[in-house]
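Entry, Tuesday afternoon. Goal for today is a structural model of the target with calcium ion bound, before we commit to ordering more compound. Inputs were pasted exactly as handed over by J.K., no edits. I checked the ligand SMILES twice against the vendor sheet because last time a stereocentre got dropped in transcription.
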Amino acid sequence: MLCALLMACSAPPGARDAAPEADAGCAPGRTRCGSQCVDLTSNVNHCGACSNRCPDGPAGSPICDNGCAFDCVAGRFDCDPSVPGCEEDLVSPSACGSCGHVCVGDDTCDAPDCMGDRQVVANSTFAVDLANWSVANNPVNAEDTVSTFRWNTNNDAENEPSTGPCARVLYQDVFVRADLAGATFSAEVRSNNSQPLMPDAVLTIETKPNDGVSDAFRIDLVDPDEDVFYAPILFPLFANVNPVGTQATPHVVSVASPALLEFLRSREGTFVRVRVAQVESNVPWHVDVDNVSLTLNIVY
Ligand SMILES: [Ca+2]
Ligand SMILES: [Ca+2]
């Protein structure tokens, strides 16, 4: 008897979990919009509120899925609700591979990756000065202990005329980022040496390094934490033996080998030093360099 009374007084099973009271005459979860009972979470004509029709847009059909959205045709995607329809194909720089993956600047989309080139050498053309570059003369074994590289009015970097054997460098430290897909080094060189140079005998930048008479012009990648003259050559980029180039027609250096990429990848996240060096030990000769470029192809 008591048990029957309790059952009669208690609420029906599940009543506390039921949806909020539905509109008059509509099933739970439905809302009355005019003469219809609709589900505001899924009805494209009454999405979120009565008579809120989801707008049409290109490349898809409007749907209501807890708010207006689009059922896009194959290959099209609705990345931006403020742009009508399915505006992206995910192979464009504006959305490369996924919504929100935007390629920077002039970078291209090779979905799902953005790709681009970054020239990491600053003031590579020596347009007005040697800004961003450092110059130094190694006095060891040198008779001319002051001559360095300088900017000239041809907008190149050249060796200052020397008064005796000397060793000099022009260098810049560049950061190697961690998303490399390729790398190219290039430069223009003019070297008017009347005698053959001996770059293989000049692995450190001082005059008479082997107690001999060795001249050299060479461009290398070295460790910026090492002494700029004596740093071991980590990656040789250029060294000539015979004269090369003229003012009108410079010798063009271009290095884009897998070995260069492999080397740079071994230095990812650190700096490397681009070092241009001349050892002038005997007969004076002139060398200049222009358009020194290290370009990293990046993928992200
Ligand atoms: Ca859209
Ligand atoms: Ca120049």
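The helical segments are 2-9, 258-266.
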